[in-house]
Amino acid sequence: xxxxxxxxxxxxxxxxxxxxxxxxxxxxxxxxxxxxxxxxxxxxxxxxxxxxxxxxxxxxxxxxxxxxxxxxxxxxxxxxxxxxxxxxxxxxxxxxxxxxxxxxxxxxxxxxxxxxxxxxxxxxxxxxxxxxxxxxxxxxxxxxxxxxxxxxxxxxxxxxxxxxxxxxxxxxxxxxxxxxxxxxxxxxxxx
Length: 191
Description:
Elements: E1 3-8, H1 19-34, E2 40-45, H2 60-65, H3 69-88, E3 93-97, E4 100-102, H4 104-110, E5 114-118, E6 122-124, H5 139-143, H6 145-154, E7 157-159, H7 160-166, E8 171-173, H8 178-190
Parallel strand pairs: 1-2, 2-3, 3-5, 4-6, 5-8
Antiparallel strand pairs: 6-7
């Protein structure tokens, strides 16, 4: 119908956001936004997780940034470009979330217009325990300063029901119903 679907498809890595996935995802989201036949976009993922965040596996590019502030600035600007893409789109974006939704994946989800979560979804920014917080840092705006501070200072995660009570997601549905519930919501929104 009038729903564009963009899928994170790196399930073997819990849809961790690699350099390649980041650029492909921005391109696909922008293509969906420019498509005149599309009224609403669903951002979903294959596998058991929406996204475990940015891929932190050792790689030469990350090693080359160590101690280089300008290289880190470029990298974070690139990350920010991805995270802000749903926010900047003219068409509404619905995040359809299952399993892990952490770090950059959580930021990306919160920058979508709406979010539907499976009852097995887990949200948070645990990277504060070993790295830093994502560049978007939208969480205080979405769930409130005090709740965000607790999650961001401690790196704790929350379940889908807690995310719903905090206003991080719009709906929680059984995992088996996630795709159908998301598409029903998208079709209503496309009207």
